[in-house]
Amino acid sequence: GDSVTQMEGPVTLSEEAFLTINCTYTATGYPSLFWYVQYPGEGLQLLLKATKADDKGSNKGFEATYRKETTSFHLEKGSVQVSDSAVYFCALSEKSGSARQLTFGSGTQLTVLP
Amino acid sequence: GAGVSQSPSNKVTEKGKDVELRCDPISGHTALYWYRQRLGQGLEFLIYFQGNSAPDKSGLPSDRFSAERTGESVSTLTIQRTQQEDSAVYLCASGAGTQYFGPGTRLLVL
Q: Which residue of A has its CA nearest to B105?
């Protein structure tokens, strides 16, 4: 079945550091790929998405490129801020029967220090 | 409403009791999902509703779990005879191509 593997945390960075959170996936077809973010005390929010190979999703300075050849969707940001501290989840969506449920990675806790 | 809402936000119950969790999706969204998030883990799919079609129950972990949805409105997730292993955050999402999540219900079974 479908699965998502993402870099284990926790990750601790200083403000303005470069961020990479690795994500690879296994899917039978051509899934859509997502990054969701969960800020402390809040619900899951969609950060960015890509629906086909070579698409780049971007939002709030974060980027991820859908790489079919390496089945990856790594999240990057050039200069993190304290406010980026959160848990980041990589996910894929592939239609199975009538459903298009999300399959999530286990999440990566990011802490950015001032 | 503006977003997905869930109630209660927190629920503490004793082992063996039944609990009912509620989800109000975004108005107009025909697709509704329930997920479970155990501590330190990713989300597990539980059940999916699409309009008036039969729900996809393939993710329900046992027959103690059930869910209902009337039309395209509110959904309730019921857990009967709760066990300690049911302790988790239960998340509801609505939307098709992109799913929008509610804040979740944090369930603690003592």
A: A43
Interface with chain A: mutation pick from B5, B37, B39, B43, highest number of A CBs within 10 Å:
B43
Q: Quick: pLDDT tens for B19-67.
A: 999 999 999 888 999 999 988 777 899 999 988 888 899 899 999 999 9
Q: What is the DSSP string of chain B?
A: --S-EEE-SEEEE-TT--EEEEEEPPTT--EEEEEEE-TTS-EEEEEEEETTSPPB-TT--STTEEEEE-TTS-EEEEE-S--GGG-EEEEEEE-SSS-EE---EEEEE-
Q: Which of chain A's residues have a Cβ under 8 Å away from the Cβ of B31?
A: 100
Six token digits for residue B83: 């066990």
Q: Is it the case that residue A43 has pLDDT exceeding 60?
A: yes
Compute the distance between CA of residue B32 and CA of residue B16 in angstroms, rounded to an integer. 28
Given a cut of 80, whether residue A55 has pLDDT beyond it is yes
Q: Is the dihedral of CA A28, A30, A35, A36 positive or negative?
A: negative
Alpha-carbon distance of B43 to B109, in angstroms, equals 19
Residues A66-105 pLDDT 10s:
999 999 999 999 999 999 999 999 999 876 555 577 899 9
